Automatic annotation (TrEMBL):
It is found in: Cell membrane. It holds the Pfam family CTP_transf_1. It catalyses: a 1,2-diacyl-sn-glycero-3-phosphate + CTP + H(+) = a CDP-1,2-diacyl-sn-glycerol + diphosphate. The keyword Zinc does not apply. It comes from the Bacteria. It is a multi-pass membrane protein. This is Phosphatidate cytidylyltransferase. Belongs to the CDS family. Its EC number is 2.7.7.41. The keyword Ligase does not apply.
Amino acid sequence: MKQRVITGVVAAALFLPIVYFGGFPLVLLTYFLATIGLYELFKMKNLNIFSGYGLLTVLFLWALLFPAEYNHVLDSFYYSKIELCIVFILLLFTYTVITKNRFTFEDASFSLLSAVYVGIGFYFLFETRVDGGLVYILYSLFMIWATDSGAYFIGKALGKRKLWPEISPNKTIEGSLGGVVCAVIVAILFVLFTDIKGSIIGITVVLSVFGQIGDLVESAFKRHFNVKDSGKILPGHGGILDRFDSLIFVWPILHLFHLW
C-alpha cells in the first residue's frame, strides 16, 4: 500500500501540471502514454513492438492520436488523418504477405484493434482538454478515482454478490453500486463549486458504469493472456493500462455527450 501511495503521489505530481498547461506538452504526454499502452498489449500477446509490424502499428497509433487542432499540418500535404490511417492498415496487412504468414492476419488484427483501443482513449484526453477545458479533465479524474475507491472499500465492507467472477473474481455488485454513488457525490461537488452544468449528475452514472466496464475489459485482457498486470512502469500499480483502463472508456464517452 505504501508503494502504491508513493507512486500515485509522484505520478499525479508529474501528470497534473502537464494537464493544467495543456497544449503541446499534453500532446507529447498522450503520445507517450498511448505508446506505452500499446507496448503493454503487444507484450501480453508476445508480439515484438521493436519490429517491422510493430513500427507500422506505432505509426498507425500516432496517426490516430494526431490532434484535430493540428490538422492544418496534414492539409498542407493534401492528406487527411483518415487517409494516413488507411495507408498504415494496408501496409500492415501487406506485412503478412512479406513474412509469409509468420506475422498472421490474426496478429495484424490484434495490432490494429490494440492501437484503436489505446489511441481513441488517449486522443480524447487531449480533445477534452481543448474543448471542455481543465475542469472536465479534473472531473473525469476525480470521478473515476471516486468510482474505483468506492467500489473497493464498499465492496470490501458490504460486498456479497459477485459482479463478474469469470473476469474479475473480487468485484461485487454492492461495490459497483457504491462506486457509482461515490462518483455522483463527486459530480455534485463539481456542480456546486465549478461551472459544470447540473446535467452532469445523471451523465456521471453512465460514465461511472462505463468506467467500470473499461476496468473489466482490461481485466479480461489480462485473464485471457494470463498476466497479473499489464506492465511494471508504475510500482505498486502495474502498467499504464492498469491505471488508465477506465479513463480510456470515459474520455471518448464524455466527449460524445457534447457538454461544452
